[in-house]
């Protein structure tokens, strides 16, 4: 095994995602396969417990090791600009401050659920920094990078990825953004 997932896993058994690509949404599996990094782990969960608070409570995974990935949209000159924001579950993304300025839009807001699901090919409640459209920046709060092992979505509600934070910060399009979360 290439990585100790236990700090984030709680009571869950984790295996390398390369061995369980069936637990990942198709675009996520494509990225994980291409990465070939056995430190990226995956675990199956009850899909009814995919939302962060319920997941952490049921499986004993620390909230401060759980990173939420939200899709944000804003318009400029009729063009919709998207970004993925990755923040710890103990914080909230500063959508109408930091994200709005980074996207250079008048107003930014969470993308409508149907739109986020359609554009990512992932399920609501499972959106992850892996497998997003190449043109989107992945904005990451520095606290995520400092967390060590973090839990993120798998693209599906029935599983979670547990990964070293550096795998996220090294994704193409990833940017560490100071004050992204409050």
Automatic annotation (TrEMBL):
Domain of life: Bacteria
One Gene Ontology MF term: aminoacyl-tRNA deacylase activity
Chain segments annotated as transmembrane: none
Record Gene3D superfamilies: YbaK/aminoacyl-tRNA synthetase-associated domain
Pfam families the record matches: tRNA_edit
Matches recorded under InterPro entries: YbaK/aa-tRNA-synt-asso_dom_sf (IPR036754), YbaK/aa-tRNA-synth-assoc-dom (IPR007214)
Domain YbaK/aminoacyl-tRNA synthetase-associated residues, every copy: 47-163
Record protein name field: YbaK/aminoacyl-tRNA synthetase-associated domain-containing protein
Organism (species): Saccharopolyspora aridisoli
């Amino acid at each position: 095994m290439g990585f100790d997932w236990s700090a984030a896993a709680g009571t869950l058994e984790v295996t390398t995602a390369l061995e369980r690509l069936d637990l990942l949404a198709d675009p996520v599996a494509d990225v994980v396969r291409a990465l070939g990094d056995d430190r990226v782990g995956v675990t199956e969960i009850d899909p009814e417990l995919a939302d962060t608070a319920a997941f952490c409570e049921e499986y004993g995974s620390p909230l401060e090791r759980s990173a939420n990935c939200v899709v944000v949209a804003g318009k400029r000159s009729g063009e919709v600009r998207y970004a993925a924001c990755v923040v710890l579950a103990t914080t909230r993304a500063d959508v109408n401050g930091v994200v709005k300025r980074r996207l250079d839009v008048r107003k930014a807001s969470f993308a409508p659920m149907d739109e986020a699901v359609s554009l990512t090919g992932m399920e609501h409640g499972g959106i992850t920094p892996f497998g997003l459209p190449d043109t989107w920046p992945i904005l990451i709060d520095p606290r995520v990078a400092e967390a060590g092992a973090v839990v993120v979505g798998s693209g599906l509600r029935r599983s979670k990825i547990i990964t070293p934070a550096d795998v996220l910060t090294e994704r193409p399009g990833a940017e560490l953004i100071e004050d992204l979360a409050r």
